[in-house]
Amino acid sequence: MMEHHEAAFPATTTQGTARLTGRTAQLLLGIPLGLFQLAAVLGFTFTGAVVTPGDWFVAVWGMVMSASCAVLSLRVYRSASARRIAFVLLAAQGVFTSVKFFVYHESAGLVFAVIVAVTLGMLFVYNRAVSARSAGMKE
Questions:
Q1: Do 120 and 90 form a contact (C-beta atoms < 8 A)?
Q2: Which pTM does this prediction carry?
Q3: Which of 79, 98, 80, 88 is nearest to 119 (CA)?
Q4: How far is it, in rounded angstroms, from Cα 132 to Cα 16?
Q5: Average pLDDT in the 57-79 region?
Q6: Could you tell me if 26 and 76 are in contact, meaning their C-beta atoms sit under 8 angstroms apart?
Q7: Which one, of 128, 126, 130, 122, lies nearest residue 32 by Cα?
Q8: Into how many domains does the chain fold?
Q9: Quick check: 108 and 17 in contact, CB under 8 A?
Q10: For residues 40 and 35, what is the distance between their CA atoms, to the nearest angstrom?
Q11: How far apart, in whole angstroms, are the C-alpha atoms of residue 50 and residue 110?
Q12: What domain range is 112 assigned to?
């Protein structure tokens, strides 16, 4: 009886950890990479910082990407297809962050790089846990 109880404890902890990582990924995708970044891009765009066609490309890229992150964050916790799209968006976020840091010399690029990395890690752990759980249910 004691062995059964000890075996159940890690499963419960794993489920709780998966839930926490999923909600954390959802929060990070929606707030800093979604709404906050969208507000920052709009602020920079309409204060006269965007002047060249390349600047406009980066600004529109940032608007579309951050709005997509904000909307997708509403579905990423429950939908496997939304999580797949989120992985692609996080890759785009990584490239965008690199452009901000290396081309525009914005130190905020480092902060967003950390947020993207943490979000990617949380989403990976959550997606793996959910996939393993659903594979176990099919057996």
A1: yes
A2: 0.84
A3: 88
A4: 14
A5: 95
A6: yes
A7: 122
A8: 1
A9: no
A10: 9
A11: 21
A12: 2-138
